[in-house]
Automatic annotation (TrEMBL), chain A:
Membrane topology per record: Multi-pass membrane protein
Protein name: Sugar ABC transporter permease
Gene Ontology biological-process annotations: transmembrane transport
Taxonomy of the source species: Bacteria, Pseudomonadati, Pseudomonadota, Alphaproteobacteria, Hyphomicrobiales
Transmembrane segments: 12-34, 71-93, 105-125, 154-179, 200-225, 260-281
InterPro entries tied to this protein: ABC_transporter_permease, MetI-like, MetI-like_sf
Annotated source species: Rhizobium lentis
Name of one Pfam family that matches: BPD_transp_1
UniProtKB/TrEMBL annotation, chain B:
Family indicated by similarity: Belongs to the binding-protein-dependent transport system permease family.
Primary residence: membrane
Biological process according to GO: transmembrane transport
Protein name: Carbohydrate ABC transporter permease
Protein localization: Cell membrane
Transmembrane intervals: 20-44, 93-115, 122-143, 155-178, 199-220, 260-278
Length: 296, 294
């Protein structure tokens, strides 16, 4: 018994740095931030509690409300765009294609690059005076307009375009692996029944990819909440508040405007958002595992 | 991903469907390649040529001066030393961060799955929750705490931050890997009198080499591509390449030198791209393994 305890002691000691990180850094700093969100802290932390005043100020701020709306539009279109394009690419690549591995490489390489790089590339492509718009106009189509990055109504879609370009390859990889994992018998049976190929993909393959695509969508959605780099690189929140996002709002108030209370209130709202988004998913997984009789 | 295809050999006949399929794939390939192409050609043009507004045109003459400027002369605000220093900062940040986080992740995964000391599940749950939460809620207190212990705006500080924020992912991947290692192996070694560290270094770490490669690659590209943490914690002297790149492009006074900007952008992307192209399947395995998280 004492030998066992001694053995476990080494394991416990080995985990101490991680315990420290988990408890002090993850829980401790979060608690500290949440506490600050109930104070009137500006440049320096203050211990004057003001209840939910920072939260009311937050939700009275046009910029914050715009940022929530923007991240919602961006998030839905970005995740949906990546899932749809990624699945279509995977399904097309699965059709016994020449140069499959070269195409796979082409579709995935943007995923290796940072959001800063992605943002700058697309800022350049969409530059109205020198980018695609100018190029197409000089071909003779004088009224061609592609001014998304400087257009208030379109700037958010420029972010979506760049985001989908960066992230669709990830979904393709996951979907392709899933498709290749489906048994050949199902294909044979479906072909014998005379079901058209596209129907097989939609009605037989797609449902089986559900869990894999859900995981990919979840991963992308987690990225959406953290969206910051691509906005800073591409539009810096503008024009106006057209591409302002919560993560950037928080950073600006934290380090630029010295508005600690407001920034931490925003961060707390983001964390709540994640909890609300993840909880049903976790619960569903838990229930499914229970139904299967699994221990976890 | 190279198993024999489940439904027979490649079709020989050309049908309308096949043409549509290839049209879609070629169109998609163009969409994905166009930005890379325009970056490269823009970086090789002179500013006079860029002002013509022919973004897709090939450069009239190959002019590498923008590359030289981007590397050693481009301005960030008033400082004009190029992105060179950022490159070496990124190397100095990334290499130790990856080495440390992979080592700690491997130890964690091994201890959590094969030893399960008291509280193992609680720790794992905590880490997973921590991995999901947006960084913004941790930042300000961390800045204060780091400043108090003298690590704010230092190389050691930014490395520590990367290691801490990498813990959830590396621990998850190694834990999932070690869970599949037969427990008998560990038990037999214990019966033979080997301790925690000896089993780790002599048995488990060699077994886990494939995972070490995958996690290193994932962490390397992730930390190289980081912007937020480098911006907040690295300090002026250690700013990673991504932050310097953004400064070069988005804080320039006067006319933007797009050729220099694009050369700097390519230089920033070149390391992760090289990893991707050289490691191919390992990279794919890495992101597939990482995607299981969530």
């Amino acid at each position: 018994m004492s030998v066992k305890r001694k053995r476990n002691l080494s394991a416990t000691i080995a985990l101490l740095p991680t315990w420290f990180a988990a408890v002090v850094v993850f829980i401790g700093t979060m608690a500290w931030s949440i506490r600050l969100s109930f104070t009137n802290s500006t440049l320096f932390p203050s211990s004057t509690y003001v209840g939910f005043a920072q939260y009311s100020k937050l939700f009275a701020s046009a910029k914050w409300l715009a940022s929530l709306q923007n991240v919602l539009i961006f998030g839905v279109l970005y995740v949906a765009g990546c899932l749809v394009l990624g699945f279509l690419l995977a399904a097309a690549l699965d059709r016994k294609i020449r140069f499959e591995s070269a195409l796979r490489t082409i579709f995935l390489y943007p995923y290796a690059m940072s959001f800063v790089v992605t943002g700058l590339i697309w800022q350049w492509m969409l530059n109205p005076t020198l980018g695609i718009q100018a190029s197409v106009r000089s071909l003779g189509w004088e009224s061609f307009v592609l001014d998304w990055v400087v257009n208030r109504d379109m700037a958010i879609y420029a972010l979506v375009l760049a985001g989908v370009w960066q992230g669709a390859g990830l979904v393709m990889v996951i979907a392709l692996a899933g498709i290749r994992g489906i048994e050949a018998e199902q294909w044979k049976a479906a072909r014998i029944d005379g079901i058209p190929v596209w129907r097989i993909y939609v009605s037989i393959i797609l449902p089986q990819l559900g869990p894999a695509l859900a995981a990919a969508g979840m991963l992308l959605a987690m990225g959406v909440i953290k969206t910051y780099d691509i906005v800073v690189a591409m539009t810096n929140g503008g024009p106006g508040n057209a591409t302002e996002v919560p993560a950037k709002f928080i950073m600006d108030n934290l380090f630029g405007r010295q508005n600690l209370g407001l920034a931490t209130a925003g961060a707390t709202v983001l964390v709540l958002g994640v909890v609300i988004a993840v909880a049903p998913f976790r619960y569903a997984m838990h229930m499914r595992n229970q139904a299967k009789g699994g221990a976890r | 991903m190279n198993q024999p295809h489940p439904n027979g050999p490649k079709p020989a006949r050309i049908t309308a469907g096949r043409i549509g399929l290839y049209t879609f794939l070629v169109g998609a390939a163009l969409f994905f390649l166009l930005p890379l192409y325009t970056m490269v050609v823009t970086s090789l043009k002179s500013m006079d040529e860029i002002r013509l507004g022919q973004i897709f045109a090939l450069p009239a003459t190959l002019d590498f001066s923008a590359w030289v400027t981007a590397w050693s002369g481009a301005c960030m605000g008033t400082v004009c030393v190029g992105i060179r220093s950022g490159f070496w900062n990124s190397v100095a940040i990334t290499v130790p961060s990856v080495a440390l986080s992979v080592f700690i992740g491997a130890v964690n995964g091994y201890a959590l799955s094969l030893w399960r000391p008291r509280g193992a599940n609680a720790l794992f749950g905590l880490l997973m929750a921590g991995g999901l939460i947006p960084y913004q809620i941790f930042l300000y207190p961390m800045v204060r705490a780091m400043a108090n212990i003298g690590l704010y705006n230092s190389l050691a500080g930014i490395i520590l931050v990367h290691v801490i924020f990498g813990l959830p992912l590396v621990t998850l991947l190694f834990r999932n890997y070690f869970v599949s290692v037969p427990e008998e192996l560990c038990k037999a070694a214990r019966v033979d009198g080997a301790g925690f560290w000896r089993i780790f270094f002599e048995i488990m770490l060699p077994i886990a080499v494939p995972m070490v490669v995958v996690v290193s690659m994932l962490q390397f590209t992730g930390i190289w591509n980081d912007f937020l943490l480098g911006l907040v914690f690295a300090g002026r002297d250690n700013l990673p390449m991504t932050v310097q790149l953004n400064n070069i492009v988005n804080t320039t006074m006067g006319e933007r030198t797009y050729n220099v900007n694009m050369a700097a952008t390519i230089l920033t992307a070149i390391v992760p791209l090289a990893i991707y192209f050289l490691s191919g399947r390992w990279f794919v395995r890495g992101i597939a393994a990482g995607a299981v998280k969530g």
